[in-house]
Amino acid sequence: MNRLYRSLVVLKAAAAFGFGASLSGFAVSASAAESAQPAKPDVTRGQAIATQVCAACHAADGNSAGAAFPKLAGQHAEYIVKQLKDYKTQPGAKAPARNNPIMTGIASALSDQDMVNVAAYFASQKTKPNYARDKNTVALGQKIYRGGIADKGVPACAACHGATGLGIPVQYPRLSGQWGDYTAAQLNAFAQGTRNNSEPMHAISSRLNDAEMKAVADYIAGLH
Q: Do residues 142 and 218 touch, judged by C-beta distance below 8 A?
């Protein structure tokens, strides 16, 4: 299944629910749901959203089949919620903080409660282990991840994302087990400004060259 086909499947699934309609309970309108503070996560409803809307790209358990789409299994719920909100144009803004037409369409159909529910579901899933694929760059990737690059002003990734890449809930995402090609693509996007929802990551990524990005991204894939 290629990426375009997957995207069409996701959009079709999201459209089936109707943009502007909440997926929470599949009945309450988004405007009504978002007027209230999100309740405690409902993992069962989150699973329903994941299965019917997210699975085509991210897999039903959040372990996507390839690097075109990130793994969401085991990711911090708070981080997933933030990213979903960043895909939506917020009041007073001209565009979403994170630009992706497919995800903007999907996120726009979710209420705040839907986001909390689906994020809690993916966070509860177990990430399938991954591994570094290029033995020739492991040493460089390890050096950057654990010690940074002092003469470029690049801090150690581990300082924020932890020694084993598990991150810190609310503040920093889990990286452990993520597809290396996906991580490298995000570092490039931060560097070029095409992903602009983290100023610190833009500053750090812009100091790395392509070889350094690929090396540290591949190393990260094997962290556990």
A: no
